[in-house]
Amino acid sequence: MTPTRTIVPPTSVVKTMSPGTHDGGGANPLLVVWRAFATIWSVPKARIGLALLGFFVILAVFAPLLAPYAATDNTFGRSEDMSPAHWLGTTAAGQDVLSQIIYGARVSVFVGFVAGLLSTIIAVLIGLSWGYLRGPAGEVINFIVNLFLVIPALPLMIVIAAYLQNGGIGMIVLVVVITGWAWGARVLRSQTQSLRSRDFVTAAIFSGESPSRIVFREILPNMTSLIVGSFFGASTAAILAEAGLEFLGLGDSTTVSWGTMLFWAQNSNALLTGQWVLLFAPGLCISLLATSMSLINFGVDGLSNPRLREGAKR
Amino acid sequence: MRYTLSKIGLLLLTLWAAVTLNFLLPRLMPGSPADAAIAKLAQNGPVSPSTRAAIEAQLGVPTGSAWNQYVEYLNNVVHFDFGVSYTFFPQSVASLVGTALPWTLVLVGFVTIVAFIFGTLLGVLAAWKRGSWLDTLPTVGGTFASAFPYFWTALLLLFFLGYVAGWFPTSGAYSSSATPELSVPFLLDALYHSILPATTILITSLGGWILGMRSTMINTLGDDYVTFAEANGLHPRTVAIRYAARNAILPNLTSFGLALGGVVGGSLLVERVFSYPGVGYLLYTAVVNQDFPLMQALFLIITISVLLANFIVDILYGILDPRTRR
């Protein structure tokens, strides 16, 4: 694997390439993704994370094949303990807990992926231009981002969810994205600000490159790990926020998800009856899914800094 | 000085925008408080027009043009007059918020500062001893713990230590027999009740600080001046603390300002599980009962605290990093 490769884009005339353009130009996107995957896979902790994430994705995609019963089938005995027929017992409403766990993966994986991706795209666009521009334009963006930051995410989501009684998954994704992009933008701005004064950026300015090219072709590749990191960060936050809303009973409580399972567990007094699996299993799944993303983040260090790749000394 | 002045100007501008947004938000949403109250009444039988008029008058449904409402709203905010709560009628919103705020500020503020200090130190250590058990233990443990949903950690602690073991009280901020006063027995009682909520927040938030500090620290460790300092034969501890950590703490400080402000709102789930009488629990109660005045006031309080925290961090950032002042 070659850590750095400079490819002159076919359209540009011969031009000095700066160290910022690692994977730019005509590189095959699939190849870039594959190399990124291999870099992350080479870190043991991240490998566990990828495997764990893969497990939940498979669970979500093939839920109808894997679940022993339908998630909403409530024809079983109520609040049963673990048995061969119901590995994790049944809920107070007589549904199979294991089937609900398997179907619940769908909501969390979907919300995490979609909301995380949308938040990251907005964060990259705003964070990089904000960090690069000086003067009044930077101040205007600063003002807008601050506005989005001062609105605390969870309370805002709760208030909106309370107004839109029983809003669905789409509403949750929308609110998570509206409240979730600003954090990433701010982190990416800090890094852009410090990269802005590096020599390769100065060189690019003197060679007459346009600001958008400098930001997205010179600076952006140096921040790949931060960007990938902020995607997984945003996904984790989205998954936790979604579960939190459903736990408070503010989502659509008829949806089968890990959050609603905890909501019904608390409302059917699982705390008092001692049916701890009902509390333990959904929360553990949320934690494991979120952990898998954090573990993958250990592997992204090496994406933009070859010196940090596995086997390389500090 | 110019930097500080421009930040103060920005603070005032953002404050105004946040207050305005707070005014607009409930009005952009469908439904009205009187409709909600009437819907509740209608479950028991038909509601006559005179009852409806009485309810609208009692709930203080805003009248007049949007501009007049806005001017009146601004005037009320400046005088800390947030109206009367629908849920806790006839208590004023300001007094309700005033009772709830100290509980949240003390509990969550204190725990967050402790978590920030310990988390940052552990993060520095983890990045410096990269690959050793000093790295693996806090990072893997912190990663897993920070992935716990707040309410799940709270539920588990409540179930195992509260209900099963019976070591700690299961709800409230003090015993129902005690009256809030500044005495040693009461403070001890409050402290005893705060152990489970505090532990929940500490467990769940510590990991974030460790990981954040570790990753920024690793970035600075790749910088040339650190290699240069090492090549100069400086003591490893000097290189780690005086060179790398000093620069790595800047991005982490930015997150601290936001987290500290968000703490007031973030405690909501924990307070809900433990029925802890803070701002979060009050907001939950307000939302469930569609108590608009209370909800708006709480929202404003949370927003202002985030603003102030950010302002302080911005000023600190300017002092610590001279480059931003240019």
UniProtKB/TrEMBL annotation, chain B:
<feature type="transmembrane region" description="Helical">
    <location>
        <begin position="256"/>
        <end position="274"/>
    </location>
</feature>
<keyword id="KW-0812">Transmembrane</keyword>
<feature type="domain" description="ABC transmembrane type-1">
    <location>
        <begin position="101"/>
        <end position="313"/>
    </location>
</feature>
<feature type="transmembrane region" description="Helical">
    <location>
        <begin position="190"/>
        <end position="211"/>
    </location>
</feature>
<feature type="transmembrane region" description="Helical">
    <location>
        <begin position="294"/>
        <end position="320"/>
    </location>
</feature>
<keyword id="KW-1133">Transmembrane helix</keyword>
<feature type="transmembrane region" description="Helical">
    <location>
        <begin position="103"/>
        <end position="128"/>
    </location>
</feature>
<protein>
    <submittedName>
        <fullName>ABC transporter permease</fullName>
    </submittedName>
</protein>
<keyword id="KW-0472">Membrane</keyword>
<feature type="transmembrane region" description="Helical">
    <location>
        <begin position="149"/>
        <end position="170"/>
    </location>
</feature>
<dbReference type="GO" id="GO:0005886">
    <property type="term" value="C:plasma membrane"/>
</dbReference>
<dbReference type="InterPro" id="IPR000515">
    <property type="entry name" value="MetI-like"/>
</dbReference>
<dbReference type="GO" id="GO:0055085">
    <property type="term" value="P:transmembrane transport"/>
</dbReference>
<keyword id="KW-0813">Transport</keyword>
<dbReference type="InterPro" id="IPR035906">
    <property type="entry name" value="MetI-like_sf"/>
</dbReference>
<dbReference type="Pfam" id="PF00528">
    <property type="entry name" value="BPD_transp_1"/>
</dbReference>
<comment type="similarity">
    <text>Belongs to the binding-protein-dependent transport system permease family.</text>
</comment>
